[in-house]
């Protein structure tokens, strides 16, 4: 059985610049990913005191890994570099049920 996971991916730097760059990378990934790619169950891009955090929930770790591998070249292309920190957590409960 697939285990859903949540991730928090953090980038340090100017939040306005990082938000714009991540939006560009995300659009590039969506344009090239195709319809069959697993998309997150939940996604939020958040401003933090020292940069941004991308918070997402995935039905499977495979889906998240595929996203990471797929978006990495686009993140590099827009000049964001590698994330400063990635947290992965198993989801016990998703939603209000």
Molecular structure report:
- With 97 residues, the chain is an alpha+beta fold.
- It has a single domain (5-90), classed as Alpha-Beta Plaits.
- It contains 2 helices and 4 strands.
- Strands 2-3-1-4 form a 4-stranded antiparallel β-sheet.
- A hairpin with a 2-residue loop joins strand 2 and strand 3.
- The protein is globular.
Q: Which structural category do the helix and sheet elements fall into? A: alpha+beta
- Major sheet summary line: 4 strands, antiparallel
Choose one word for the global shape: globular
Report, as a whole number of angstroms, the end-to-end distance: 20 Å
Average pLDDT for all residues: 91
Query: Helical percent range?
Result: 25-40%
Strand order of the biggest β-sheet: 2-3-1-4
Oligomerization status of the protein chains: single chain
> How many independent structural domains?
1
H/E series? EHEEHE
Radius of gyration: 13 Å
Q: What is the fold named in CATH at topology level?
A: Alpha-Beta Plaits
CATH architecture assignment name: 2-Layer Sandwich
Q: Report the total helices.
A: 2
* Percent of sequence in beta strands: 25-35%
Low-confidence stretches: none
Structure characteristics:
single chain; 97 residues; alpha+beta; Alpha-Beta Plaits; 4-stranded antiparallel β-sheet; 2 helices; 30% strand; globular
Provide a concise account of the structure shown.
The protein has helices spanning 15-33, 61-77, and strands at residues 5-12, 42-48, 51-58, 85-90.
């Amino acid at each position: 059985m697939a285990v859903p996971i949540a991730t928090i991916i953090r980038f340090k730097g100017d939040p306005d610049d990082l938000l714009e760059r991540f939006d560009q990378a995300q659009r590039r990934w969506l344009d090239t990913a195709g319809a069959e790619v697993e998309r997150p169950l939940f996604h939020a891009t958040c401003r933090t005191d020292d940069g941004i955090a991308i918070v997402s929930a995935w039905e499977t770790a495979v889906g998240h890994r595929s996203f990471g591998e797929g978006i990495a070249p686009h993140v590099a292309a827009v000049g964001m570099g590698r994330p400063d920190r990635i947290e992965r957590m198993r989801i016990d409960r998703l939603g209000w049920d």
